[in-house]
Amino acid sequence: MSETSSNFAAGGSAGTAVPVVRAEHLGLTFPAGDGDVVALSDVNLTINKGDFVSFIGPSGCGKTTFLRTIADLEKPTSGTLSINGMTAEEARKARAYGYVFQAAALYPWRTIEKNVALPLEIMGYSAAQQAERVKRTMDLVNLAGFEKKYPWQLSGGMQQRASIARALSFDADLLLMDEPFGALDEIVRDHLNSELLKLWGRTQKTICFVTHSIPEAVYLSTKIVVMSPRPGRVTDVIESSLPRERPLDIRETPEFLEIAARVRDGLRAGHSYDEEHV
Ligand SMILES: Nc1ncnc2c1ncn2[C@@H]1O[C@H](COP(=O)(O)OP(=O)(O)OP(=O)(O)O)[C@@H](O)[C@H]1O
């Protein structure tokens, strides 16, 4: 079946794909005094188990709103959304996802291990279960040895790794990441990108990742969702032909640059800048 601009499957190979997130004709309009804001319009997208999907688009195109809608932090005004076959509300109650925000959002008065354990405490895990899961996730993000430190004793990159550990601690299959490395310098970001890819390879999670960076989107993703503003729409879904094992220097290969060029074209096509300034 050919894909149209309003109907995309961001999924694994045909026949084996298990849908995790399915949006059909999804729309979300924020009422505002000076005119409604159409943040999402007619979004049709299927994200399958094990996908690493990046959302890229100009500021205000609805990337965060889409993630927040999956997380049941916003309610759609039209269309349907299902997560593992559940409504967003049911999925939230079933703890179907972990959420990583742009800022690490760690509590400064708690040690790193206590921050990572927080969701487990809230969910009523026993002390022994908490300790076992905190150890496992701290190992996963390479933070072993920093359990007793406070957030302010860690670098920005380490704080973000702690916030990823917190999102992974209760073993949700779906990880929602909203520009988690946007505030970090490029070298740290490169390092965390490559660690995140390894973590994804080891855990087989499904990841939805918001970014403004074309190289980051191409380096990380199996699928790149290109969005355009006014109203926020999906204008392209690019399936990556890159292998799952990706050393950082893959970014200099012709295949990588070709995908990056397609993302750039998609962003340009959806952007009103040229029309506004001619
Ligand atoms: N609670 C709200 N009330 C009114 N408008 C909102 C609200 N939240 C978001 N918006 C608007 O919806 C649109 C989409 O916002 P959103 O934050 O999803 O964009 P984004 O693509 O994530 O942007 P950025 O890349 O800058 O983070 C924007 O025009 C924004 O101003």
UniProtKB/TrEMBL annotation:
<dbReference type="GO" id="GO:0005524">
    <property type="term" value="F:ATP binding"/>
</dbReference>
<keyword id="KW-0067">ATP-binding</keyword>
<dbReference type="InterPro" id="IPR050166">
    <property type="entry name" value="ABC_transporter_ATP-bind"/>
</dbReference>
<dbReference type="InterPro" id="IPR003439">
    <property type="entry name" value="ABC_transporter-like_ATP-bd"/>
</dbReference>
<dbReference type="InterPro" id="IPR027417">
    <property type="entry name" value="P-loop_NTPase"/>
</dbReference>
<keyword id="KW-0547">Nucleotide-binding</keyword>
<dbReference type="InterPro" id="IPR003593">
    <property type="entry name" value="AAA+_ATPase"/>
</dbReference>
<comment type="similarity">
    <text>Belongs to the ABC transporter superfamily.</text>
</comment>
<keyword id="KW-0378">Hydrolase</keyword>
<keyword id="KW-0813">Transport</keyword>
<dbReference type="InterPro" id="IPR017871">
    <property type="entry name" value="ABC_transporter-like_CS"/>
</dbReference>
<protein>
    <submittedName>
        <fullName>Taurine import ATP-binding protein TauB</fullName>
        <ecNumber>3.6.3.36</ecNumber>
    </submittedName>
</protein>
<dbReference type="GO" id="GO:0016887">
    <property type="term" value="F:ATP hydrolysis activity"/>
</dbReference>
<dbReference type="Pfam" id="PF00005">
    <property type="entry name" value="ABC_tran"/>
</dbReference>
<feature type="domain" description="ABC transporter">
    <location>
        <begin position="21"/>
        <end position="254"/>
    </location>
</feature>
